[in-house]
Amino acid sequence: MEAGEEKATLPKRGYDTSHLWYISFLVANISGGLMTPLMPLFVTNYLHQNIIYYGITSSAASTASVVALIFWGNLSDSMGKRKIFILIAFFGSFLSLALIMLVGNLEEYIILLVSFQIFSMASVPVSTLLVIENSVESQWARTVSIFSMISSIGSVIGLVFGLAIVSAGLNNTDILKIIYLISALIYLLSFVLSIFLLKEPSKRINRRRLSWIFSVRTLEKARYSPSYVYHIVRLFHRKDREPFRPILKYYLVVCMFLMFAFQLFFIPFPVFMLNSYGASETTIYIMYLLNNVLSTVTFNYAGAYIKRSSLGKALFIPLIIRIFAFSGAAILPLYANNTSWTVYLAILVYGGIGAFWSFINITQITVISKIAKKVNRGSAIGYYNSVIGIGQIVAGLVSGLVLFYLGTSMEFILAALGAMIGLLLVLRKKELLNMDNYSSVPQTP
Fold first, then answer.
1. Partners of 138 in the beta sheet?
2. Which of 10, 49, 387, 426 is the most exposed place for a label (fewest CB within 10 A)?
3. Nearest to residue 364, comparing CAs of 255, 265, 223?
4. Are residues 46 and 78 in the same domain?
5. What are the angstrom distances between the C-alpha of 290 and each of 42, 132, 287, 354, 364?
6. Which domain holds residue 316?
């Protein structure tokens, strides 16, 4: 341990206010949850564009996030600053979302959405370091776990808030812009709270020291937009870089391919519901809410299950369930006229699949952490964060074309086939099923 990094500065007397800044992130995640379903709704219902343009929009947003995350992470590390990046993220998000009130075409919407993704990513690589730097080392895992749960709860609260708004029966054309404006104002509130509650830590902890701890994506999103990360792709400090093991490179590619397959289902599904079933905004919000709630609820159970089960089994069962779910969803377009039961089935399929995301994500990061060398474990997880974003980018471009030219059923079948191929790619490598030859798994929040 480096000198001077054993402890973070905490208040010396009175009530411990060192974690009150979590409130600003809770509020920001409420805004994020509120606007989670808005992209397919806005592109389809307000701008009246087809699935191809929605895919392009999703891909553009994910591309902006991947690039911005690497940029902000490296910039913040080189500057050694934290608070300024939080303020940039929250105020930039407010400004970008508020300007959507003036949007009149798809090009303007994409520009503002990309701007939002770029600004919002400024807080992602520094928020986790703030958690660490404002806590004593013995409490890192606990405080990180609390921060992670706060992020997830905020997203769920935002979806509930959004569901209440769309259920109020306002004009469809106006309601989407109103929700964007509300989201912008919530980000402005987060900005103000951060000014007063967030203090620049007096101690600095190097991100490379945190290879033993890692974050997971509690919620699965149709575009790359993580709430926080510990590890990033580093553009500098290459002198002492250890090469990745071949099996690690192989597994990173498999993870990217699996994310691509998953998004062939998730990206077009809301648009399919809007176009084929005439689903309302309320229905779409219910779908997203159920998916997020089940993902959040199963998060802790997934971690406990993976610890007492083999990693192969922990990944095999969720993937098999997803393969059957994707394949089964291919029959939904055949019953588009029979809305008495298929709408409810579609909601259950989309929501229920979210229950298995934590199993997949935690297993993938655990495997990566074990097969990576200790010296480049953090870098490996940083690459993982980026490659799954690349999978979402490619899926955004491909999914719209597949659905437009081949139809929804073929899209879902291809998603199932992709997940099956990904599973077979894992099973064909014995090293990925037997982790005894590698280092022990690092601590997870």
1. none
2. 10
3. 255
4. yes
5. 21, 31, 5, 8, 23
6. 214-226+242-440
∠ CA 416-420-425, nearest 5°, is 150
User: What is the per-residue pLDDT across 103-131, written as a single tens digit (0 to 9) for each?
Assistant: 999 999 999 999 999 999 998 888 877 87
For the CA atoms of 267, 229, 434, 316, what is the dihedral angle to 10 degrees? -20
d(CA 244, CA 371): 9
Q: Cα(first)–Cα(last) distance of the chain, in Å?
A: 20
Report the CATH number at residue 158. Answer: 1.20.1250.20
Cα-based distances in Å from 237 to 9, 205, 243: 28, 16, 14
The answer to whether residue 237 is domain-embedded is no
Query: Are 183 and 283 members of one domain?
Result: no
Q: 304 and 202, same structural domain?
A: no
| Same domain (yes/no): 310, 275 | yes
Token pair belonging to 106: 């798809």
Q: Is there a domain that residue 421 lies in?
A: yes
Same domain, 205 and 268: no
Residues in the chain, overall count? 445
- The tens digit of pLDDT for each residue in 256-287 reads 999 999 999 999 999 999 988 888 899 999 99
CA 334 to chain centre: 31
Chain-centroid distance, C-alpha 285: 17
